[in-house]
Structures are given as structure tokens and as C-alpha cells.
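hiii, so i know i said id send this last week but things got crazy w the move. better late than never?? heres the sequnce for the chain we talked about at the cafe, plus the structure i predicted for it. fair warning i was half asleep when i ran it
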Amino acid sequence: MLASLPDIATVIEHALLQPGITPAAIAQGCEEADRYGFPVVCVYPSAVPQCVELLHRRACQVCAVIGFPTGATTPLVKYTEAMEAVEAGAKELDVMLNVGWLKGGKTKEVYEEIAQIVSESQQTVKAILEMNLLTEAEQTLAVEICLDAGVHYLKTGTGWCGGVTVEQVRWLHKMSNQRVGIKAAGGIKTLAQAQELLLAGATRIGTSRGVDLVQQQAEFHG
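okay and structure toks below
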């Protein structure tokens, strides 16, 4: 079964999102992503220009988190943040849903916010659901809204409200009917854990431990 799994490096989004992360640490993360063949680095919008410059003509793409980590900024702020990141060179956007609006029944507003960013950014958009804060009914509603809005990936959470579970990924895989990719994120520290998530249907692994996972895989095959 494990033989059917991809090389772990090819599905890692290298998360450089620690509070207070410095330009030097961002530069190190970009170097690691390039060296190990990670497809994406995931950073705050303020770090996008630096990453784009460092990864110019490299295979690794730059992803910016939008409305991170709470999703509670206004639609105009999120839209502006997203478009500024795209203008600076971001090719992917991880957009945090307004969970309070979702739980409070403001579904039209949640849809319009994410749909506008999808439509006007013209880049790959991943909707962050923060599943650990949602009931199953709210999770279902969130998935329906995001699919209707045209997102390209569903992301389990920020990692700030608890880790991802295999059950969450399996459920998202089933609910999305393979229409979009699934990004698993939050507390992924071991190769075995990442492999379980991939087998459950994840297509991307968001983690700050990507180098560790690659080294674990090398040791396993060594």
C-alpha cells in the first residue's frame, strides 16, 4: 500500500507561519523548499515579495495566507490582502473562512467573500475550514459553500485550533467527491502520520516539519 504513495517532498507545502518569523528564517525556508523539491512555501502576505525574489525561476510556488488565522477581518480587507499578494507574485492563496459568520448563519456573506477572491485573483485558492470549530452540519455547509464558490482545495484548518485527523480528511474526500484537492494541515510531525492522511485522501500536506518528514522517508528507504 505504501508503495502507491508519492514521494513525500512532492506534496509538502512548507509552512513558514510561526509568529514573529524573521526574514532570515523565511530565507532559510525558501532554500529548504528549493533543495528538497517542495512545490509550495506558505507565508504571510508581507513575506511574499521576499519569497518570490528568492524562488525566481525555481519550481517552488509562493502561497499567501489570507485572513489568517481567524478569518474575522472584513471582506474588503481580505480581498485587498489577497489581491496585493497576487500582485506581489503569489500563485496560491490559503483563505480563512469567517467561522463566526458561518456558525451564525451568514452563509451568503461567507460565499460572496470567498467567491470574489476566487473569481478575481485567478490563482489557486484553498479555503481554510477550521474543522475543529465546526459541527458536522456546519462542516457540510462550509464544503457546499466553498465548492459553489469555485475553490480549488479544501484545507482542514490553520493548526492553531488543534491538529488534523484522518477522519476529517476522509470525510472531506468523500464530501468533495474528488472535485477539489484536500490540504491536510495542523500538527503533522511524522512520516507515518502524513502517509495516513494521504491514504485518507489528502493531496497536499501543510507542515512546518517538511524537512523532518523527508529525512524520515530517507531513513526508511535507507
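btw The two ends are 19 Å apart (CA to CA). thought thatd interest u
miss u guys!!
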